[in-house]
Amino acid sequence: MMYLHKDEMIIDIKKNGIVFRDFHKIQYVYCVLEGVVKVFKYTEDGNEKIVDILTDNDYLAVTLMFGDDTEYNLSCIALSDVKLVKVTVEQMYEALQDKNVLKNYINFTSRKLMNFKNYLANTSEIEERILIALNELYERFGKCIGKNKFVDLPFSKTDLASFIGLRRETLSRKLTSLSNEGKIKVEKNRIYLKV
User: Which of 65, 88, 126, 155 has its CA 20 to 30 A from that of 29?
Assistant: First the structure.
């Protein structure tokens, strides 16, 4: 279990429960102990755009405390039942004085930065974007049994499409295309990746 601060709170949120909402005052930051959450924003036309999917030992809203914003600029809900460490912004500043907490946070942000750089490097090809996203999800949620490398999606394909920045119909078409090319195999919410 991750420890952040002597006064931390451990909270449980049920699936579809709200962690925080866009435009609410930033009072707390979080670390995911168990479960999966999505961080998202609504676009001007009212569509949901998923910014990130986070799971065990990932941090929520910590980067916001380093800026000038006083409000969350994103929303976050639980995609499964989740257990979170909840600390105030002041407590997180104190926690980051601990070298183990700081190391964990730097590792988290470095991984997110590398994933983002890989995403940007391959944004022109939709199929490449899908494969990058699936490989990232595999690194976080995947399993390998024998030569079968697969990920059970912790959310719907509609959420996957939003996460990649595609329409649901486009994702379906591209998944079929990738499957026909032998690069993946799709069975409901389980996706097998080529080893």
Answer: 155
Q: Which of 156, 155, 131, 151 is nearest to 139 (CA)?
A: 151
One-letter amino acid at 16 equals N
CB 141 within 8 A of CB 154: yes
Q: Are strands 48-54 and 37-42 parallel, antiparallel or unpaired?
A: antiparallel
Pairing of strands 59-60, 48-54: unpaired
8-state DSSP, 88: E
* Residue type (1 letter), 153: L
CA distance 3 to 6: 8
Q: Check if the beta carbon of residue 172 is closer than 8 Å to that of residue 160.
A: no
Dihedral of alpha carbons 97, 98, 99, 101, sign: negative
Express each pLDDT in 108-166 by its tens digit.
888 877 766 665 555 557 888 888 888 888 888 889 888 889 999 888 899 899 888 88
Helix axes 168-180, 126-141, angle to 10 degrees: 90
Asked whether the beta carbons of 52 and 39 are under 8 A apart, the reply is: yes
d(CA 169, CA 152): 20
Nearest to 187 by CA among 195, 138, 145, 179: 179
